Amino acid sequence: MLRCILRVGSAATRSSIRSSPVPTSAQSYSSKNPKSNVAMSKKTKSKAHDHASASEAKVEAALSDAQSRARSLAADEKDPSIDLGPDGRPLFTSTPSLSLLSRKDACSYFKFSMDGLKTALPEGLPTGMVKEFEDSLRPALLVRQSFLDLRDNFRRIVDPPLRFSDDKGLKLKKQIVLDGPASCGKSIALAMLVHWARDEGWLVFYVPRGREWTHGGFFSKNPETGHWDTPLQAANVLKDFLKWNESHLKQLPCQIDGPIPLGEGAGVGWLKDVDNMAMPEGSTLYDLVNTGIKHTHAAVGVVVRLRRELSLVKNIPVLIAIDQYNSWFTFSEYEEAVTIRSSRPVHARELAMVNAFRSMMHDDMMVGAFSHSTAVGKLRKDLPDVPVDARVNFPRYSLDEAATVCHYYLRQRLVNREVFSEENWKKVYYLSNGNGTEMRWLVPLMRQSA
What we know:
This protein is α/β, with parallel strands linked by helices and 450 residues long.
């Protein structure tokens, strides 16, 4: 009897324990989490909404300011009295072409048309030039004495009797490397030189982005030449070269006999049992370039052949202009497998196209411009395949040039007239050390002197 009573009591106790759950820490957290999560979610959404609203407000304000500035500049075109530079000098030159610019036009702005620029430079405009046009809302560039010297150097090579009284003892250079500090205008000067040469009727091979020759696309080693082929870049180069020079190329015959070596096509491999392609008799340079565009296996071989053909053209002046030229003196993006687990970087000189165009040890007119935006780093002074005296330091803005630049930005409403003063623009000049990009950024930050 006692045992029965004890069993019944024990069972009742266990039943009561099971029927009355004890709140655990996990259960208590779970009971509070929904409210907390909802509150946190609301706060997060609220902050995100406020941030988005603030960003939208800033964008709208910026757009409104830009539209207002554009309207004001359009109205300013009717008032030529504000087109004044330092000391009341004309801010814009009235000279109609780059060919007619003279020393008296230095430190004034030359107006371009965007359609004209795109026609003369179909390969593309330098980044610095595009940024200048976007910020100033006008396609105009400063006429610098350094550009005039560069232009006149090549003009006198082609037309030796053309001499000025102040150029006694001046040594002319057929090969020039434009070097200098960042944002000093090397790429813009090179583009203006190409524009001028094409206006003069020259045949110009212009590469505005030399770094692209060493980065991206397909690459393969050609066992026949020992160099690396980059067929995509080759096809693009030939297409760009054809855009402006088509009429010239149709009149120039090919002067080199012999077949063009074939390589691996872009994404299509090698041709079977064919390792070269012959050009038909009587072909022109236009036919040669078209062959490289149509046949991906011949693209690199055509670019290499074109370089040799350009050296033989005597009917018209030929200029080779390479921007980002310093990219051709360092390693490319490509790598060659050495073992299963290791590889070595391929130097730019090992690329067939770079190897064909990099050298300046010849009698052709050639200009290369260094670009600090490519992050190549500082190169040694004595570059391989480049004459010792070819390197020219391109200067930043002088004080006189900076005065004109700041007055131009005032004319283009990058800064208010109330805060513009000689003291302030000189502060901008000395703070930037004549760096064109930094000056354009600092000018709108002018404030009223205390």
